[in-house]
Amino acid sequence: MREETKIKMLDIRFNAVKQEQLLEEVFRNIEEKKMSSIMFVNVDVAIKAEKDELLKQALNESEMVLADGMPIIWISKLFKTPLPEKISGSDFVPELCRMAAQKGKKLFLAGGGEGVAERAAENLLMKYPGIQISGCYSPPYGFENQPEEIEKMNAAIHSAGPDIVIVCLGCPKQERYVYENRDKYKAGISICAGATIDFLAGNVKRCPAWMSRYGLEWFYRFLQEPKRLFKRYFIDDIQILRMVLKYRPGKSQ
User: Whole-angstrom Cα distance, residue 64 to residue 96?
Assistant: First the structure.
């Protein structure tokens, strides 16, 4: 992605692009054999990056970083550096899969619990006839602390030879994994897509479009998993207000 599309906000370098431009860039990079990564930043990811230097480094060295959530768009407008639109992994990946099927590009699905990647692959094969899924892999819990398990995952991706690998391990595991290993597994495009694999597998329902438009996707997800997400949305994510004050334009860092 061209450097002039980058906007620094909350100490993270975002790409000021629309989804259509992003898709064009992905397939152009595949044709030109340019290895690149795509990462999505919502409020939760931004807060984690503030405390995790490796995560922040992974984001800021990624070729494509997108605003995943209306709060990030609102902050960009507040900072007078408006990002053109919200691009979430759960919206982007299905469209990417549709185009990959048309263009004959191979995908690899990594992440999710046992059998989740395989169910996601089955659903994609039914929805997009002709799509090529070159492999699936679900690493064991705690794999990120086991070099031999990381090597197994790298080998599985590399041997499958995908054009695109969709990595759904949750933040910050997926961003760290891609940042530290993409030169080893050598897929063309690496996409950190979080819970997208659960949407593809049918384990979690997508938020209604009208709620997403009004920035209420977080509330929809909370209603689905209140015990798991209460702390994240009502305690942890409040810290974004402190970050807005810290990084507001004109304030010396």
Answer: 15
Looking up tokens 């041997």 gives 159
pLDDT tens column, 32-91 = 999 999 999 999 999 999 999 999 999 999 999 999 999 999 999 999 999 999 999 999
Q: Are residues 107 and 169 in the same domain?
A: yes
Q: What is the four-CA torsion angle of 84, 87, 91, 92, rounded to 10 degrees?
A: 100
Same domain, residue pair 90 and 74: yes
The answer on pLDDT for 199 being more than 60 is yes
Overall domain count for the chain:
2
Q: 37 has which bridge partners?
A: 190
* CA 137 to chain CA mean position, Å: 17
Residue 253: per-residue pLDDT: 56
Burial class (CB in 10 A: 0-12, 13-18, 19+), 162: buried
